[in-house]
Structures are given as structure tokens and as C-alpha cells.
């Protein structure tokens, strides 16, 4: 009697790198995505996620995935800004009043995905890109002294990335777009006067409260950003259709999971920063927010004249934002009214 034929599934292994330090919650998000894929794919597909710098520096992730040095990666589109300025529009700037989840809605249902694919093709990047994970509004940044007016930004040595560089340059700051892991050492050595990264959890773990005690909350410089998961297109195309479907649905599940985890962890770390680390939080004055919008209009006017892709993306965002924004603004109740009724006494951030 002959032995029965038993099909043994071969494991496809993908080596990913994030653009985040291993201790950052963002790297954890990358691992969360990989775990969802690995759990659903069984032993047929395994994604291993390495931290920033394990194979290439953070800002070289796109090229590494394109060349096949890495099979994929986890980062943000704004980090590719130097290759085409339009790429920064997936994150930088006020997005015509869209919150980060609305920006993802535009990307997935309003034409953004096709535009991103078009730009990657134009810059010869043979990758498959998934966007997910709406980031909460990022603070203006961490400062040695609180900022009460626009004039205090002039000459300030400041860290940001993407088109935010142009916004803060327009406001008079001297900008250095350092990767996340290099920000706090630069602040500590006086190479920076102030810096922004992203959120309470990342900022706490990266060590911001050790080198600065004032954080300005609310800003339009990166108010609608999201994460990007990249695949080398050749490796991705070689996958079976059901494994591609697993990746699709893992992205969607990770987007929801990330947004829930961010609320939980960011709120806990915000309380810890105020209590244990004695950080003073201030609301960014409206005059600075309006100045950001003025600077944004000047920056985008220049970029549209220089780059046809930039104009196409902006026009697409504007059309979607006008429709979806009106719906959201008309339909959504002001949740602050209810929160203030029960909790507001002494809880609001200070004025600078």
C-alpha cells in the first residue's frame, strides 16, 4: 500500500523594517499588523518586523523596498517628500479641514490611492502601498519655553518633517528634519531649540520630558496623518490571491485596532506626562494656528506651480473635503459640551 499524498504548505517569509525605534509605540503598531497577517496566514506567510536602522536608515525605507533589499516596511508617506513634494500631502497641512480618518476616506474612496500609485510610478518606485491608522492631531511641539506668539518662532532651531518643513520655514523657524530617534539627543545637545514628533506615548518613550518641560497642543502642521505599509511589488505579486486578501483585511483591522489603542495609550501617557514628569501643556494660541494656515496657502501656491502632481492631489482633496466636511460638521455633535459638563473643571490645557 502506498502512503497518502500530504500537501505541505511552503512558508513565504517577508523581512520588513519600520522607520521607528524598537521602543516606540509606532513600532508596536507595525508588529501588530504583522501579527494579524501571521495569525491568519498560518504557516504560509510570515512577516518579520525589524526596527529603524536594522537594515537601512529610516528615510531610505522606500528605496530599500523598491530594490528588494527589504520585502516591505512600515512608515509614513511624508518621509518620501524629497522624491516628490506631493507625497507630503498625505499627512502634512490642514487637509482642507479633514480629520485623519476623513483623509483615509478620501484616499480609499475619493481617488487618493490612484494618485499615490501614479506618483510612485512617476518616480520609478515599484511598490505596493497601503495606508491605514488615522493618527490623532499632533502637538505643535516641545519647547524650552511656551510660545505665545508667531514672532517667537523666528530663528528657532526646530525639528519637523515633510511639508511641515516649508510651513515652519515660512513662519521663520530654522528647520532640521531629523528622524525620530535623533530628536531628543539633538535637543539635549542644543542642536535644536524645539521639536515635534507625534503623540504623548511616543514623545514620553523617546525621552522628550527629559529635555523639555513645555508642550504646545494642537496644530495644523500634521493634523491628518496616517501610516503606510509598503511591499516590494514583485514579492507581493507572487503571493496567492487568498494571501493578498489576508493582507487587505489585516490592514483594515489594524487601522481600527491602532485607532483604539492610540486613544487608550495616548490618554494614559498624557496623564503620566502631566503628573509624574511635571510637563506643562499649553493650547497653541489661535493666532499661531491662523498663521500656519496663511503659511500653508503660500507654500501650496508655490508647490502647485512647480509640480502638476501636487495640484492634482490638492484638487482631489479639496473636492472631497468640501463634500465630506460639510456632512461631518453638520452632523457631528460637539462632544466637548458633554465632556465639559462632567469633567472640565481645571482640566483644560493652559494658555501660553
Automatic annotation (TrEMBL):
<dbReference type="InterPro" id="IPR038404">
    <property type="entry name" value="TRAP_DctP_sf"/>
</dbReference>
<feature type="binding site">
    <location>
        <position position="222"/>
    </location>
    <ligand>
        <name>substrate</name>
    </ligand>
</feature>
<feature type="binding site">
    <location>
        <position position="159"/>
    </location>
    <ligand>
        <name>substrate</name>
    </ligand>
</feature>
<dbReference type="GO" id="GO:0031317">
    <property type="term" value="C:tripartite ATP-independent periplasmic transporter complex"/>
</dbReference>
<feature type="binding site">
    <location>
        <position position="197"/>
    </location>
    <ligand>
        <name>Na(+)</name>
    </ligand>
</feature>
<dbReference type="GO" id="GO:0055085">
    <property type="term" value="P:transmembrane transport"/>
</dbReference>
<keyword id="KW-0732">Signal</keyword>
<feature type="binding site">
    <location>
        <position position="196"/>
    </location>
    <ligand>
        <name>substrate</name>
    </ligand>
</feature>
<dbReference type="Pfam" id="PF03480">
    <property type="entry name" value="DctP"/>
</dbReference>
<dbReference type="InterPro" id="IPR018389">
    <property type="entry name" value="DctP_fam"/>
</dbReference>
<keyword id="KW-0479">Metal-binding</keyword>
<dbReference type="GO" id="GO:0046872">
    <property type="term" value="F:metal ion binding"/>
</dbReference>
<dbReference type="InterPro" id="IPR026289">
    <property type="entry name" value="SBP_TakP-like"/>
</dbReference>
<protein>
    <submittedName>
        <fullName>TRAP transporter substrate-binding protein</fullName>
    </submittedName>
</protein>
<feature type="binding site">
    <location>
        <position position="138"/>
    </location>
    <ligand>
        <name>substrate</name>
    </ligand>
</feature>
Amino acid at each position: 500500500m502506498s502512503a497518502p499524498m500530504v500537501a505541505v504548505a511552503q512558508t513565504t517569509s517577508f523581512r520588513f523594517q519600520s522607520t521607528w525605534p524598537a521602543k516606540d509605540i509606532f513600532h508596536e503598531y507595525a508588529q501588530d499588523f504583522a501579527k494579524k497577517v501571521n495569525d491568519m496566514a498560518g504557516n504560509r506567510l510570515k512577516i518579520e518586523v525589524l526596527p529603524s536602522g536594522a537594515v537601512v536608515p529610516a528615510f531610505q525605507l522606500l528605496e530599500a523596498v523598491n530594490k528588494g533589499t527589504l520585502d516591505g516596511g512600515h512608515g509614513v508617506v511624508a518621509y518620501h517628500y524629497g522624491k516628490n513634494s506631493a507625497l507630503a500631502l498625505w499627512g502634512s497641512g490642514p487637509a482642507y479641514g479633514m480629520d485623519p480618518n476623513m483623509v483615509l476616506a478620501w484616499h480609499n474612496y475619493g481617488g487618493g490611492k490612484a494618485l499615490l500609485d501614479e506618483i510612485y510610478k512617476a518616480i520609478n518606485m515599484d511598490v505596493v502601498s497601503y495606508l491605514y491608522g488615522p493618527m490623532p492631531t499632533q502637538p505643535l511641539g516641545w519647547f524650552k519655553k511656551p510660545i505665545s506668539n508667531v514672532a517667537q518662532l523666528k530663528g528657532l532651531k526646530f525639528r519637523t518633517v515633510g511639508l511641515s518643513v516649508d510651513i515652519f520655514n515660512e513662519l521663520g523657524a530654522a528647520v532640521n528634519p531629523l528622524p525620530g530617534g535623533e530628536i531628543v539627543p539633538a535637543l539635549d545637545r542644543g542642536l535644536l531649540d524645539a521639536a515635534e514628533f507625534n503623540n504623548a506615548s511616543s514623545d514620553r518613550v523617546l525621552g522628550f520630558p527629559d529635555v523639555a518641560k513645555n508642550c504646545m497642543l494642537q496644530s495644523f502642521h500634521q493634523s491628518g496623518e496616517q501610516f503606510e505599509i509598503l511591499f516590494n511589488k514583485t514579492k507581493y505579486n507572487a503571493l496567492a490571491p487568498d494571501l493578498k486578501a489576508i493582507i487587505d483585511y489585516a490592514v483594515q483591522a489594524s487601522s481600527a485596532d491602532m485607532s483604539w489603542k492610540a486613544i487608550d495609550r495616548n490618554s494614559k501617557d498624557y496623564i503620566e506626562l502631566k503628573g509624574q514628569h511635571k510637563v506643562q501643556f499649553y493650547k497653541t494660541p489661535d493666532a499661531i494656528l491662523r498663521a500656519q494656515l496663511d503659511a500653508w496657502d503660500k507654500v501650496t501656491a508655490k508647490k502647485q506651480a512647480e509640480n502638476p502632481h501636487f495640484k492634482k492631489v490638492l484638487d482631489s482633496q479639496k473636492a472631497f473635503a468640501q463634500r465630506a466636511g460639510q456632512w461631518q460638521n453638520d452632523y457631528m455633535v460637539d462632544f466637548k459640551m458633554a465632556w465639559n459638563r462632567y469633567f472640565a473643571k481645571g482640566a483644560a490645557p493652559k494658555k501660553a
